[in-house]
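Thread: quick sanity check before group meeting

JM: Hey all, I'm pulling together slides for Thursday and realized we never actually wrote out the predicted structure for the chain we discussed last week. Dropping the sequence here so it's in one place. If anyone has concerns about the input, flag it before I start.
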Amino acid sequence: MQETPRANRLHIAIFGRRNAGKSSLINAITGQDIALVSDKAGTTTDPVYKAMEILPLGPCVLIDTAGIDDEGELGVLRIKKTREVLDKTDLALLVIDPLQGISTFELELVEEFRRRNIPFIPVINKIDQATPSPADIEKEIKEKVHLVSAVSKEGIDQLKELIALKAPSDYQEPAIIGDLLQPGDMCILVTPIDSAAPKGRLILPQVQTIRDILDHDSQALVVKETELAKALASLKNPPRIVITDSQAFKEVERILDPSIPLTSFSILYARYKGDLKILLAGIEKLKEIKPGDKILIAEACTHHRQQDDIGTVKIPRLLEKIAGGKLDLHWSSGSGYPENLSSFELIIHCGGCMLNRRQMLSRINKAREKGVPITNYGLFLAYANGILERALAPLVHKL
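JM (edit): ok, ran it. Output follows.
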């Protein structure tokens, strides 16, 4: 269970004012002292993540956040980090101190949950210390509350059951490639082993795609691009589909018979993590870019840059070839995502394997709200290599 990647877990975030008992509650739910607890207000500063399993829900991530009523210059920064957690929240717990009751802090959060369509559970904590008035709180927020004591553990088991009940069933797409396959289908996965490949292992999208193929009773044959021709010749029948690293598109397309379906890991992730239709629409902007345009290249992880890095070298080279001159290129990586998106003409995002689906969709929606086209690495590289139509063909009936 602990090997399930964080990005594929349901993200449950705990919000509330300082000293409402958020950290105590996360410790009670996990049965471990993983969050620092103190009577001093503002003990939790940065969000704290804990991977665990809630039966019958399965693997999830609990996120402890700083108080939404934090004060001072540092407090403003902590609140900003707390609100950033909303981008990746699949289910929220709003912790209420019965001694404090409801204020504008909680009401604004409830409004934000509803605006973002985030399911939430209001939780009155500290019932061992005070007798709450749930009816008054329910009237304010128009939602049924759940009563717990993080100290005595009263109501904690029932809260876990409620979490499983309220968790959204669509927090991630059901399949990466499996819904395109029939049992017994053979898939060839082309995985270049170059200087950027991690030593001793495959990258996450490749591993997850292999697992998805196996989960759907199909077969996976994994080869380097240099061995693809031999692999094809060794098969009695053509493969159902070939899935390649987007950087090898050109070489793979040259080797492959036109009758064999072809796509890439990144294009599969465009629908698995995000919204394929919106990301595909972003390709249209590439027909209009010109020298001097401001373009953002965004990645969801941080990694050691190689000599011919895809985000800082290969994609910029292709972009400027399409534009016919120098562009004003900017980069973001990891959890950071620029707030001034409206200043960009186009955003090209990685596949998003390190983000959960809600966070990737949040990034897409932020771009849409600012009227900025957005696409992803795989779609861009297919377009730049002149094979976008072919790379999309296996997914057309799913659009």
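AS: nice. The domain at 6-166 is CATH 3.40.50.300 (Rossmann fold). Residues 114 and 120 are 9 Å apart (CA to CA).
JM: adding both to the slides.
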